[in-house]
């Protein structure tokens, strides 16, 4: 108990340190749920919570509260995505927002390790299953319309998030390669207009490439990066006056071998930077820009929690809540065993910290 208390004090006082791994005891920082999900997005609609995650046709779960119990109620799409590339049956990393009574679910299609990808969108007048219209691709990388234009000629167009400011939307996306980018959506929220050097904003990039052994290199040029793999993805932007916060999934994701885990600290963790503008530049507590490798560690592996990532933020009456997926080391390291977890946020000198449940 003394150890847990000490670790919690260190965690809240020093955001730039991760919590050391210990035995498989319960983590006091994560509010656990029964929901198996990867890359979650959660919305609150009139007191009903909806979660969207990776799975056949974008699986939807519903609960009366974040703690659950969660129940699967259907899917966004009633058939494969109409985008003719990638994993059309099980789109990745959805994010759902509501604008003027319409629900927009943005999703990714791709193949692991390749940047021949696209971000699509479906719309509905309700958050649950049925009635969704798939509008297809908004942006593409690798191949397809616009993929040879800046910045899509150097990115991996997956992991969408959308920041709504008034009646305008900003699409945040990216994985590995050149990192995280942001472009404006058109007023219809289902398309982008003319993307230029001035309105395409580079938000974050991992500073240390992972070198891949030559024998493991995919011969497809869209599935390799000569500069090395740079593990940052799953970005999200939230706002807590006076700052915008860019949240990142940092480090190696998925397909963990429990007998050969990454070196401690190189697995998924959640990092953040802040800016007074939604376009950046975002910096960490040391003032280092996230495009130059900065990023304040907010939450990492601890106790029975391993590799938290895919973050998002809900603003509730009790304050801001950081939600994410994580692996429970007492259960499994398997991709499909990831759970929805959440933690309550406080702010100290304008920087988010994990706090005790209210």
UniProtKB/TrEMBL annotation:
It catalyses: Endohydrolysis of (1->5)-alpha-arabinofuranosidic linkages in (1->5)-arabinans. The record marks 159 as: Important for catalytic activity, responsible for pKa modulation of the active site Glu and correct orientation of both the proton donor and substrate. It is found in: Secreted. The keyword Hydrolase applies. Keywords: Carbohydrate metabolism, Glycoprotein, Glycosidase, Hydrolase, Polysaccharide degradation, Secreted, Signal, Xylan degradation. Residues 211-220 have a biased composition (Polar residues). The active site is at residues 39, 233. GO terms for molecular function: arabinan endo-1,5-alpha-L-arabinosidase activity. Its EC number is 3.2.1.99. Residues 1-16 form the signal peptide. One of its GO terms (cellular component) is extracellular region. The keyword Secreted applies. Residues 202-226 are annotated as: Disordered. Its main location: secreted. One of its GO terms (biological process) is xylan catabolic process. Pfam families: Glyco_hydro_43. Pathway: Glycan metabolism; L-arabinan degradation. It comes from the Eukaryota. Belongs to the glycosyl hydrolase 43 family. Endo-1,5-alpha-L-arabinanase involved in degradation of pectin. Its preferred substrate is linear 1,5-alpha-L-arabinan. This is Arabinan endo-1,5-alpha-L-arabinosidase.
